[in-house]
Amino acid sequence: MPQHIGIVGCSAEGAALCYRTLCTEGPSLLGRPHAHPEVSMHTSPLADYVDCLDRGDLQGVADLMLASAHKLARAGADFLICPDNTIHQALDRVLPHSPLPWLHIAEVVAAEAAAQGYRRLALTGTRWLVDSSVYPDKLGALGLSYVRPTEAERTEINRIIMDELVPGVIRAEAVVTFQQIIGRMQQDDGCDAVVLGCTEIPLILSDANSPLPTLDSTRLLARAALRRAVAGGT
Question: Is the entire prediction scored with pTM above 0.70?
């Protein structure tokens, strides 16, 4: 039997897309209709995470993540994933005390970027994420470079994520904004792919409408979890 996947949720839309990907892509890996590993999810209120992030309280973020981790361990999960890039800032504080192992979303994305031969990545996500070392550390470990958006671009991306995508609001204007920012980073900064470093960005952006090839952190994490669950269960 495949291993039991535990999802430490944060924002609803990103967690839902991750869960849906596990369920819809499981059958092709397991070889029978409607099959997927057992999945459990626990989500603390997003407001609690935002309060901690606004204060710069990464220990508070870690405590919320650990509370979910312990509940998922009691539910029988074998390992954990978190479909939220931003709160991975606190994962180093979580791991020494976690009852279960974790997959790291940025490690998964960096490995895929390297496998695809990309060298210079445009980094998008919340301001908390883009300003952090979550992706620089993991990309740098594989010899990959990255470019952050400008200050004005970061502000607008963050607004779209928090005010629109997280509550599930999809606007055509948001798509155009992302396309313009990514196109500028391709032209001005020489980027050859874009990290969709917020798990809600794939709701509006994909290879079909992005100026650059996309690294969809949400689905890449889900697929890595599926592979681990199947390999660990054999």
Answer: yes
